[in-house]
Amino acid sequence: MISLFTASFAFAQETPETKTTPAPAPATIINVESLPHYNELKKRINLTGVVMTADKEPEFPGGMALFRRKFAENMEVIYAKGKKIDTRVYFIVEKNGYVNNIAAISNNKDHAKAAETALKKMLVRWKPALVADKPVRYLYSFPLSLQKF
């Protein structure tokens, strides 16, 4: 069984004043209600019927390395102003492969908005997640972390 967070990755922008720090790896979460941001997420996105584990995870066209590169290219630089910014981006890859229901939760509103905007700029059709060879709604998540030094 593949865990949602084993495929997680960290993004952040680096400028002369900032340095990227990898986000700590979260514990494996097997149901949506166990998410640390569940109460906020259920207000912002439709979580009906989503899975967080699948026999086959969704695939971005060109692979996850390309996804990370394109996301970073689209992400607006946000200055940390002396504090660490932690953001978690959530989105659902639908049964038809299209990304829907995007939400970023952060201790910095501007960083969350920039992350959501970056993801919206790259809406392409993915190969959907599969459970028992049938497409399913898959909740994807990844952390972003930014620290000024």
Q: How would you characterize the overall build of this protein?
A:
This protein is an alpha+beta fold and 149 residues long. The protein has one domain (33-144). It has three helices and six strands, in the order βαβαββαββ. The chain has helices spanning 38-44, 64-74, 109-120; strands at residues 18-19, 50-51, 85-93, 99-106, 129-131, 134-148. Strands 1, 2, 3, 4, 5 and 6 form a six-stranded mixed β-sheet that branches. Helix 2 (64-74) crosses helix 3. Mean pLDDT is 79; it is low at 1-28.
User: Which whole number gives the mean pLDDT?
Assistant: 79
Helix and strand sequence? EHEHEEHEE
Number of helices: 3
**What's the β-strand tally?**
6
- Tally of discrete structural domains: 1
What separation lies between the terminal Cα atoms?
A: 39 Å
Shape: globular
Helix-residue proportion = 10-25%
Main sheet, how many strands, which sense, barrel? 6 strands, mixed
Residue fraction in strands:
25-35%
Protein name: TonB C-terminal domain-containing protein
